[in-house]
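Example 3.2
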Amino acid sequence: MPATTQPRERNFYAVFIGINDYSRNPLSGCINDVLEASAYFERLCRIQEEETGLKVNWMPQYYLAPLVEEEKKLAAAGLRPGDEKLKVKERKADHYYLPTRRNIIDAFLHFEDANEKQGDICLLYYSGHGSYVHTFQVQDPKGAAVFSDYEPTGEMQTLVTIDSREEGKHDILDKELGYLIAKTLSGKMPGSEGAGEKEGVHFLAIMDCCHSGSNTRDDKEAPTARMAPSGSGIILTSQIEGYNTGEEDHVFYKKFKEGQKRVAQEGLKHARYINLSASRNTERAHENLMVWQKKAETGSSAKVTQRNGYFTYCLLNALERAGAKINYRELIRRVEMDVRSMVDNQVPILGKTELKDDNLYFLGNEFVSPPHRYNVRYDDKKREWYIDGGKVNGLFPSPGAAKTTIRLADGSNREIEVREVKEMESVLDNSRAILKEEDKRKNLQATIRSMPFPRLNIRIAEPMDRGLKDTLEATWLNSRTPYNYFQLALDTDLPADYEIRVIQENGAILYSMVRRGSDIPIFPAQSSISALFGCVEKVGKWEATRKLANPDTGIPRSDIEVRVEVLENEP
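Structure, written as tokens:
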């Protein structure tokens, strides 16, 4: 029996929502989150046809509320304000629209044309304030708290839109989102009647917000919680999108029995989808200053520091490192470890409606990851070849027999060793004249071919006594012990994973290490610098093991053909 032909074209429908410009408690990292996430997914779609022949049509819509100073940044990214009078399906991918409650609800119409036969993908991405309402606030006309039986915690999670705190309006309830997703996927889910397990529309929701805890605001150097106070006032069921208790075949609500006043524990029919959330419902999601590597207009690489959500930053970095051929369980595990290394009280979670779905591939497909490409250039004055990637990109030089190499992306498959790694660029070893004279006139690019292991960047915490700091630096520089899994970042602008701190107790000096932004020691304080570096090396080895990943493992389904033959007269 011949194998089923895989579709060679899919559509990727995306709705991005980013809100910074709240009238109260504005944020500053949500527009950056949207731009980074959108760029990743667009690049992921584009690379598929180049690498596998699968055409993935990128079809985004944007609902954004930028701060005034961010409007130029959006324009530079090719996004400008759109005509609010346009219907959803008329809205343009190079415009953005107001993230009002009505607009966000209507935006689900963008997903309406998703085709289950070709395995289309739907992405809902939200970066902004989350909040909650008490179940006693949501009532039917007779005053019954209709969700009090369904939510034993007494709270319902919400998304705060740009206008949802205006008089007569309310946040988007989690039950409203559940209804909108169920309506979108009605008859289109994997496993739906007439569809096989691998067919259907894959729906992924990514929520970089929080839903409970106190509302904190601090200075710009501290983590900011994406948390708004609870909404107030009574919300009538007539105001809830999709609320229905009388239809036998309603897509989300089960029909009430005679005399029933509240939604029962089993009273909702959730669609089959995946939800990646920034934090548990008892925690806050935070944003802070993050370091990214960007391409400048000249083509060179530049370090950019901007505010982003910890969750979005770690999610995109995990996908870049591990590749898109990773299941959701492993992905959220890696994101959780990265987030918790940066902030103590935030644990990302994976939500799913079927237990087995944590084994699904990211986006339900075996997508090829877009490799990061570096520009290759020749410096006439120094007579050296360079790539525009360095320590801030996680590159490091060849340690001994293990080599860090690049491969040219011009089709020649030429490989060159990286001889020296600087902060923003790396020097190539062209002693074998792999790069020719004519290559100097070409716009060459390259990808990393091999790299033995990543190293931790460790920084000395400030403030610290000048004498102690000099001793630490001198011990590092003069050490004869080869430390392979960490380096002491003497350049204070270099992003650091951990910090070294000094503790003075009863006249004794002890050395400890903490994660950036945390006060919790990673290991017991050490009485000598050599013992400290030994412990740091062990942490670096553990981190290196955790971060190593090969995105090219596995065999694509399109490369597999299964035939079953029935042979006569054979047992």
